[in-house]
Amino acid sequence: MARIVLIEPSRRDFVTLRRFLLDHGHQCDVHFKYARQALSGLDASECDLLVVTLELPDIHGMELVTILRRDGRLKPTTPVLVCSRLGSPLNIQRAIRIGVSGFLLMDDRPTLIGRAVDAVLAGGKVFPEHARLPLGGDPRLDSALVLPTHLVAVLHGLHRGRSVASLAEILALSGASIGQHKRQLMRKLSATTLEELFSVSEEIGLL
Predict the structure, then answer these.
(1) Which of 5, 157, 183, 191 has the fewest other C-beta atoms within 10 Å?
(2) pLDDT at position 175
(3) DSSP secondary structure code for residue 46 in this structure
């Protein structure tokens, strides 16, 4: 019996997933709706598998995983299964780069969650089939693949319409740092305006 922790913003989806996992003999008593709850409440000693939705309301899921590992709230050996609505090759490759064990598209999660959980708990890897990135052909794509997770978290927050002040509070950064990260993103992705930054990010599969 594995102790599975879910970080999922939808209460309905959590209840459905929990019922399924319980029926398959797993323990699933810990649930966080927001990333910030997990940052203060996750106990590394009570988690055999972390299942996290990337598009969380506050902090992007990949940045959350990075922080949890850095702060010791998630053991380096604990497998992580991420779920996302965005199935672009770039998004999948970025997940692979940060060292998660599996990636499920949200549309596939209801039917594949059981097999995916069993596979990663057994030490396997589960990723959707996806096209290879044409690295070297588009410098924006090359840059996006290696963007630090905190920059992508800033991008997602800005795209959700958050103000600099609210984003700074959520990410525990200063407003000046958020502005600096925004300029970094625009430079690395060759955008001159915020609207162009969002457009480029959508074009290459980062949003």
Answers:
(1) 183
(2) 92
(3) G
List the one residue out of 117, 10, 123, 113 whose CA is nearest residue 77.
Answer: 123
pTM to 2 decimal places: 0.93
Contact 34, 56 (CB under 8 A): yes
- pLDDT tens-digit profile of 36-65? 999 999 999 999 999 999 999 999 999 999
Cα-atom radius of gyration of the chain, to the nearest Å? 17
Structure tokens, 190 = 């060759």
The DSSP bridge partners found for residue 27 are 3
For Cα atoms 199, 202, 207, give the angle at the middle one, nearest 5 degrees: 125
d(CA 182, CA 57): 19
Whether the predicted pLDDT of 107 surpasses 90: yes
| Cα–Cα dist 112/33, whole Å | 22
Q: Do 159 and 195 contact (CB within 8 A), yes or no?
A: no
Spell 116-148 as b/e; 16+ CB within 10 A means b.
bbebbbeeeebbeebeebeeeeeebbebbbebe
Residue type, 184: Q
- A 10 A CB-CB count for 6 gives 23
Cβ pair 155, 201 in contact under 8 A:
yes
Chain centroid, CA 3 distance in Å: 20
Contact, 60 vs 54, CB < 8 A?
yes
The two three-digit tokens of residue 81, written as one number: 């299964």
